[in-house]
Automatic annotation (TrEMBL):
Protein name: Cyanovirin-N domain-containing protein
Origin organism lineage: Eukaryota, Metazoa, Spiralia, Gnathifera, Rotifera
Presence of keyword Signal: yes
Name of one Pfam family that matches: CVNH
Signal peptide: 1-23
Domain Cyanovirin-N residues, every copy: 43-158
Length: 160
């Protein structure tokens, strides 16, 4: 239970640090709600600021349709894995039960990206790390999260 509490506390800290962005408004935008919704699909980098990776969460301050701002977080464990030294996005988001089951199996097989990747960096929308391959060697890898993560009315969401 302690690791869950520590992760939750870390997420709260990340969100609190990100909340300072609420004071800075985005420039006004004349797009309609429908156009804004389309513009943000697979493109959270255009409408979210102060985006960072804290623990296993992608955290950002994202614009809603009404132009207000919302701090949002997405659990990357549910959407990403280390596949033989490469960061890969899953085909779908895992439920709570599935995520717990998969985490246990990935730990057993050594493919949990949190346990088998190190030296993380995040620039723009690209997450880079050094991840362990099945043969034990370490390999630099990166993934553009913008390709599958969207801002839907202020919420970071994973596109299936």
């Amino acid at each position: 239970m302690k690791p869950v509490f520590v992760s939750f506390a870390f997420l709260v800290l990340c969100v609190a640090l990100n909340s300072a962005a609420f004071a800075k408004r985005f420039p006004s935008n004349d797009e309609s709600d429908d156009e804004l919704a389309l513009a943000t699909r697979n493109n959270f980098g255009e409408t979210c600021t102060r985006v960072s990776v804290c623990d296993n969460y992608l955290v950002g301050t994202c614009r809603k349709r009404d132009q207000s701002l919302l701090v949002s977080a997405l659990d990357l464990t549910r959407v990403m894995a280390n596949i033989d030294g490469e960061l890969k996005l899953r085909r779908r988001t895992l439920s709570d039960d599935e995520a717990q089951e998969v985490r246990s199996e990935m730990r057993r097989r050594g493919s949990d990206y949190q346990l088998t990747c190190k030296d993380y960096s995040f620039k723009g929308t690209v997450l880079s790390a050094t991840c362990q391959q099945r043969n034990g060697q370490w390999k630099p890898t990166s993934i553009d999260l913008n390709s599958k993560i969207s801002n839907i009315d202020g919420q970071l969401t994973y596109d299936v």
